[in-house]
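Researcher: We're teaching a course module on how sequence relates to structure. For the next exercise, students receive a sequence and then see the predicted structure as tokens, so they can try to spot secondary structure elements on their own. Here is the exercise chain.
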Amino acid sequence: MALQGLAVLALWRAPLRLKARLIAAYAAAALMFAPWLIYALPGMVNKINAGAITGYLNSIATTPAGIAQAADLLTAGQPALGLGLLALAVGIAWRGRTAFEMVAARVVLAAGAGTVTAMLLVNLRIGIVSERTLTAAVPALALSFAVGAGVLPARGRSVLVGALVAWAILTPQNVIPRLNSDLVAQTVAAGWSPGDFVLLETGFDDMAFAYELETVLPDLDRRIFPSFYEYDYPDDSAMLADLEAALAREERVWLVYWNVPPRLAGMLEQRGYTRVHTGRVPVGINDPLYRLYPEVEVSLFVHPRTPAEPRVFGGLFALTDAVVPAQVAVGGTLHVDLVWQVDDLPDRDYTVGLFVLDAEGRTRAEHFGPPPENPTSQWPVREMIFDRHSIDLPADLMPGTYSVLAVVYYYETVDAPLQVEGEPNLVIGAFEVVDP
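Model: And here is the predicted structure for the students to work with:
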């Protein structure tokens, strides 16, 4: 932009008064840009010197192979043709028919090929050359190609440029592969309950994942915590202090992890959380960054409460915790998490039934578990056993308060469930159906 402005001032045949206005406009633009430079530039320089910023993970190195890769990207896979057009443009810049033509060609070349050259030189110190950053130079570089093509005869020029444009359209270059953040959000939403804490550990992509989560999760006690501190905090320690305070009251935490060195899972485990479920969402193709991190990891961590006296069913199954969400949207899914412990290995496979009851005691929904791959006869002794029940609520279940009843029985003696505190069942909690 600066080069173009200087060229205009030198070649524009206009009164000094109009040129002064142009200079004033550039000065005003620089003035508006200055606060950002004053704020950001020293911090960037300090981080580069400290090694905190070392470039993109998928940056293209300034090597013969890297330059060839960049040239292939910038010329739509036709580097020989692109270099030929640049050579013709250099010829015009060196010996054009008029002074105006030479200066214009030099400005265009400086903005296009000059920008790419400068990026490759800076890239020797810090990796800034990647598919994403190179796209910034494409418009000016295309103008450089156009300057070179202008030397050719009109008919041949039309055929050559048309073929190049058609080739570029038919063979698109892979610049920014799609990040499947929407699929990740849907994965979280499939098991999320109002009140669950969602912790993002995806670097500067936290905002992309947060946006998709806010799109699919109902606004019912929704808490999403981006951990990339530069968005909201002065430093990393301030973010961690805020996170520590938030975790002090959370029982269920969803951790979305991708693209950064892992650390928050270890932090959760040190605070007493246990990872009870992990899902993986494939993300991206044909990109070096995605090859390093080909999947987004979605994990559920729980922090069971330790009651003074667990509720024991039939002297066999100790229910140490039951997490029932406070709210569920109309027609939604109620996710109830039970935490069990057995002191002796059960000799048979029992069924755990959960029933949603209305104010009149009528059953409105139900779910039976545990799943076949985790039968009670194989539960580990004296260990925490996580047992999730996802109950689909009927669409006509009206807003109101409902209770959740738990029953444990053997299939041959359904009418004689295991006793708990002298009763055949236990109310483990209540929730409210709301219309968000």
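Model: If you want an answer key for the exercise: The chain has 14 helices and 14 strands. The chain has three domains: 2-170, 181-302, 311-434.
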